[in-house]
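README, section 4: Worked example with a bound small molecule

Sections 1 through 3 covered apo chains. Here we extend the same pipeline to holo records, where the ligand is supplied as SMILES alongside the sequence. The molecule in this example is adenosine-5'-triphosphate. Nothing else about the input changes; the structure line simply encodes the ligand pose together with the chain.
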Amino acid sequence: MDKTKFNNNDEILRKYGEIASCFENLSKMFEESYELNLSNIIKYYKSCLMKLRDLTIIEKSEEIQSILMNILRDAKSQQQKIEGALLSNSRDGKEKFAPEVKRRKVDQSNRIKLTMRKPIGNGLDDIVGLENVKTILNKSVLLPLQFPSLFTGGRRPWNQILLYGPPGTGKSKIAHALACEAKVQFYSISSADILSSWVGESEKMIKDLFEYTRNKEERCIVFIDEIDSLCRQRSNKEGDHSRSVKNQLLIELDQNISYNCNSFVLCATNCPWDIDSAFMRRFQCRIYVPLPDKNSRLQIIKNQCKEINTELTEEDWKEIVNRTEGYSGADLMNVTTYAIQEPLGELENSGYWIITDDNKWMPCTSETDGGIKVPLGLVPADKIAVRNVTMKDFAKAILITPKTVTTSEIEKYKQFSSDRG
Ligand SMILES: Nc1ncnc2c1ncn2[C@@H]1O[C@H](COP(=O)(O)OP(=O)(O)OP(=O)(O)O)[C@@H](O)[C@H]1O
Ligand SMILES: [Mg+2]
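The generated complex, written as C-alpha cells:
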C-alpha cells in the first residue's frame, strides 16, 4: 500500500467513509435478499476487511489504531463463521446459517406461511355466470400455464388484475376457484391483516410476500382482499406508516410487472373509487363483478337446493327469480338458507305425528286423521321425515331477507366502469 498518499487527513477521512459504506452495503445484503447468497457476501466481506486493515495501518493515533484492530479481529471471526456455514451448506446440502441469518429467514418464512391458504372449492365451474371474468382469468392464468411457449417476447400475460363490484358478488370465491383450477400455490391476505401489524412490520410483510413469490420457479396466485383500505388516495393528513406501506406496495407491484414473473396478483374491492390512481394504473386489467342476472340467480339458488326435496313448479322458479332482482349471490344464499330451513322449524313446533307407509314420521296437526301426540325428543331420529320446500317458504324468505345492495350503489359502479374501469 502506498502510505505517502495518506499523509493528508482528508484522504484518511475518505478512507473511513469508504469503509462505513462498505459495511452499510454488507448489512443491506443480509437484510434485502430472501435467499441469501453466502458466496457473494463472503467475497464482499473480504474486500471490506482488506480496506479496514489498510486503514488500521495508516491511522496515526495509536489509541484509534488499537480500536480498529479490535474491530478487525471481530469482523474476521464473523467472516469465518459465515465461511463455516457455507462449507456445511455445500457438504450436506442443508441450509445452515449463522444464528442471526437463520433467525431472519425463520421470521420471513413464518410471515409467508401465514398467508398460504388451501383454496376452497373445485374450480371455475363453481362460479355461476360471470363469463367475461372467467374468460379473462383463463387467458391470464390458465392459458400461460398450459401453453407457456405462446407467451414469449412481447406477448406477456397480465399478472395484476383488480376485481371490483358490490359486496357478495363472488369476488373472493373467484380467487379460490381460480387457484383450484390452476392447481397452484395460493397466498391470500386481507389489507386489514397487513395494516393491523406493528409499524414497520406491514412493509416487511408486503416485501417478504412479493419477494418470495416473485422468485419462485412455479406459478402462484397472490390474493389481496379489501385492497381499497391499503391503497386509498394519498393525502397530506395521512401518517408516515400508511404512506410507507403504500410506497412499498407500489414498488412491489412495479417489480412484479417488470420482472414478468410467475406470481399472479389478484386484488378485490367494493370501493374502487377510493383507490389511488397510482395503484389503479398498475392493474393491467380492472374487471367489474356485477350482481347476478336472471339465469345466474336461478342457478345459484338451484345449486343450493341440490339434495333438498322441493315442490316448485317452473312458474314458481320464475317467480322466485323475478322477486330476487337486485339480490347479490350472498343475498340469494341467505334467502335459500332461510327457505330450506323452514320445514325444520315446524318439526320443533309440532307435537303431532303421522307415520307413513314407509315407516317415516311426518309432523301434522291435531286434526290430521291418524295423527299421534308424541314430543319431538321421543321420535326416532332416523325416522323423521321433513316435508318438501314450497313456494310459500321462498316467499317468506324473500320477504324477510331484503337485498343488501341499493340501486344508487349500482349506478355508482356503472359510472366508475365507464369512467375508469
Ligand atoms: N357468481 C357466483 N357463483 C357462485 N356463488 C356465488 C356467486 N356470487 C356469490 N356467490 C356466493 O355468495 C357468497 C359470497 O361470495 P364472496 O364472499 O366471494 O363475495 P365477495 O364479492 O367477495 O363479497 P365481499 O365484497 O363482501 O368480500 C359465497 O358464499 C358465494 O358462494
Ligand atoms: Mg370478498
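What to look for in the output: The pocket of adenosine-5'-triphosphate (ligand 1) is lined by residues 127-130, 167-173, 268, 270, 292, 296, 300, 329-330, 333 (CB under 6 Å). The first strand starts at residue 116 and ends at 117.

Section 5 describes how to batch many such records.
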